[in-house]
Design brief:
Layout lengths: L6 H11 L3 E3 L11 E3 L1 H20 L15 E4 L8 H7 L1 H4 L1 E6 L6 E3 L3 E8 L5 E8 L10 H18 L5 E7 H9 L20 E4 L3 E3 L5 H4 E3 L5 H6 L1 H8 L5 E10 L14 E11 L4 H18 L7 E5 L11 E7 L10 E10 L1 H8 L2 E3 L5 E3 L18 E3 L4 E3 L2 E8 H12 E7 L5 E7 L10 E5 L6 H14 L4 E3 L5 H11 L3 E5 L3 H4 L1 E6 L5 E5 L3 H9 L2
Parallel strand pairs: 3-12, 24-25, 24-26
Antiparallel strand pairs: 1-2, 4-5, 4-9, 6-7, 6-8, 10-11, 12-13, 13-21, 14-15, 15-16, 16-21, 17-18, 19-20, 22-23, 26-27, 27-28
The structure holds glycyl-adenosine-5'-phosphate (GAP).
């Protein structure tokens, strides 16, 4: 794993060059925030999703279970529609609360999230008022910090101010988000004086921007036909809680899982696929008795962290961070994020891979009674409109669970491990990227790029080569290649170029094993198996190859 931020450029270049990830609609100049997965990328991401589904749902009780962890519960799946009844988003809170604050530049028309703009202000230490300020975007893609010109301008403005005031005035630089600056000096209403971070043009006052994509259902125009593309898969699960209980006879505790596309009209999509406008989520809603919810929260938080470690994210690039109490949603007892130090982030910064949240009974109750808010005493109550009626009506359906043993009826508490399939895929890509130096056939040192994917995630597991294109080697190699494919092992056949170059091509796409059929194979019925990471070569009988690879894949 290469630590430097500039290595991200190499990863992005490799992803395009080898067919992992392409910009969407590239021939028309691309569309910001949308990405396509190429032939290798689609296999990698499918392996990420399949590993998640297998480990969390189909074989949750037998594969990769932490020692002593409970296994006696059900996990089932769903595949819900992307567009749902608009009331879903009113009761879930997304209609009112799922927004960012943004400012627009009136000159160059750029749009910025208020919390992504940083203000460097010179403050008069006596009056505590700003004398001058400059803005910049705080992220890895832009110059982080003031440019030389901006620093010069600030100092010049301070000199001018001192001259005008005619005294020996002390000023100090203070750096803060535009958000904080507006609260301190402009009370959130006025136009930020420093202007656009790109062109210094005039900025609009901050405005709310809902992140849900709107669409129209059927032929109805206006509000009546308005619907939204789901911004999370979770709500489809809550919609079907009762259906699943009634149809599959699951008993609490149990989990419902879903993998699917979600859409968010992010104001500033960036950092490659990390913040996209269309992405895939892998979400679980785990329903349990309120008295047991803390225990299950801890169970899922730890189990989900272990999952990333198992597939290769480990060491100080991966962390589990418990949210501070002031970061928690108003209904949450606890939330932890699994975070990864992506190479495009600043040193010491981490990006969220997954949020594991204790959501209490907020979601099911909101869909029963109407959107909930906390009152002054801290209790969750239905939000009311000016007429004292529910602002958003719930379904009115009874979503409580009935325990037929204890005869107890209750609204289950929910633990939600919510992961992003694209972010996990990106983290596995970043972690896998490696460079080293190896001797070529003539003993000359050559630099090598190799993707050290976990074998279960690698898009191609085995590449089969005939050493040369004659003496029956291609026929034997092709037969072995077919045998591997018939056994369900993703394989590739390659007879072009020198063997060293063929190895390098496979290293670059992360194929864990290469098998070469050579002149000796006709005599001893054995082949050479070469390992991607250690470069170790061993001879194995040709009729043991499928069993050998299967065993390696299952360890
Ligand atoms: N149901 C809870 C929920 O949606 P979230 O933290 O907003 O929570 C969960 O999203 C996960 O979805 C994130 O941890 C991240 O992996 C992924 N995700 C969210 N927004 C994303 C975006 N714009 N692009 C790519 N992945 C995103």
């Amino acid at each position: 794993m290469i630590a430097m931020a500039q290595e991200m450029d190499k990863i992005v270049a490799l992803c395009k060059h080898r067919g992992f990830i392409f910009q969407s609609s590239e021939i028309y100049g691309g569309l910001n925030g949308f990405w396509d997965y190429g032939p290798l990328g689609v296999e990698l991401k499918r392996n990420v999703k399949e590993s998640w589904w297998r480990d969390m749902i189909t074989r949750h009780d037998e594969l990769n279970v932490p020692e002593g962890a409970p296994t006696a519960f059900s996990m089932v799946g769903l595949d819900c529609s992307i567009i749902m009844h608009p009331q879903v988003w009113k009761c879930s809170g997304h209609y009112d609360l799922f927004h960012d604050f943004m400012v627009d530049c009136k000159e160059c028309k750029s749009r910025f999230r208020v919390d992504h703009v940083t203000v460097a202000a010179m403050i008069d230490t006596a009056s505590k008022q700003p004398v001058a300020c400059e803005t910049y975007i705080h992220d890895a893609e832009s110059a982080d910090g003031l440019s030389k010109t901006q620093a010069k301008r600030l100092n010049k403005a301070v000199d001018q101010y001192k001259k005008e005031q005619g005294g020996d005035i002390d000023c100090e630089e203070a750096t803060m988000s535009l958000d904080a600056y507006l609260k301190l000096f402009d009370h959130g209403a006025a136009i930020p004086p420093a202007g656009c971070p790109k062109c210094r043009g005039e900025l609009t006052a901050p405005r709310e921007f809902n992140l849900m994509f709107k669409t129209t259902v059927g032929a109805l125009a206006g509000e009546e036909g308005t619907a939204f593309l789901r911004p999370e898969t979770a709500q489809g699960i809550f919609m079907n809680f009762k259906n699943v209980v009634d149809s599959s006879r699951v008993k609490i505790p149990f989990g419902i899982a879903q993998i699917g596309k979600s859409f968010r009209n992010e104001i500033t999509p960036r950092n490659y696929t990390f913040r996209s406008r269309e992405f895939e989520q892998m979400e679980i809603e785990f329903f349990c008795h309120p008295d047991e919810s803390r225990k299950w929260y801890e169970y899922w938080r730890d189990r989900r962290f272990d999952w990333y470690v198992r597939y290769g994210l480990a060491g100080d690039r991966l962390q589990l961070r418990d949210h501070d109490p002031d970061e928690l949603s108003h209904y949450s007892v606890g939330t932890a994020d699994v975070e990864y130090a992506f190479p495009f982030l600043d040193e010491g910064e981490f990006g969220e891979l997954e949020g594991d949240a204790h959501r209490g009974d907020f979601d099911l109750r909101s869909h029963m009674e109407g959107r909930l808010v906390r009152d002054e005493s801290g209790c969750l109550v239905v939000e009311q409109n000016e007429h004292g009626q529910p602002k958003y009506r719930g379904s009115g359906k009874d979503l409580r669970y009935f325990n037929d043993q204890t005869r107890e009826r209750f609204v289950p508490h929910v633990i939600e491990p919510s992961a992003g399939a694209d972010r996990a895929t990106l983290a596995f890509l970043c972690e896998a990227y490696n460079e080293d130096e190896q001797p070529d056939e003539k003993g000359k040192m050559q630099s090598r790029v190799y993707m050290k994917f976990h074998p279960q995630l690698a898009p191609i597991k085995v590449a089969v080569f005939p050493l040369i294109k004659k003496d029956g080697m291609p026929e034997r190699a092709a037969a072995l290649y077919r045998e591997l494919k018939q056994a369900g092992i993703a394989s590739m056949y390659d007879q072009q170029a020198a063997i060293g170059r063929r190895y390098r091509r496979q290293d670059e796409i992360g194929t864990p094993w290469c098998i070469t059929i050579d002149g000796q194979t006709a005599e001893d019925n054995a082949v050479t198996l070469r390992e991607r990471d250690t470069l170790e070569q061993t001879r194995i009988p040709i009729d043991r190859v499928v069993a050998d690879i299967t065993a390696r894949l299952n360890t």
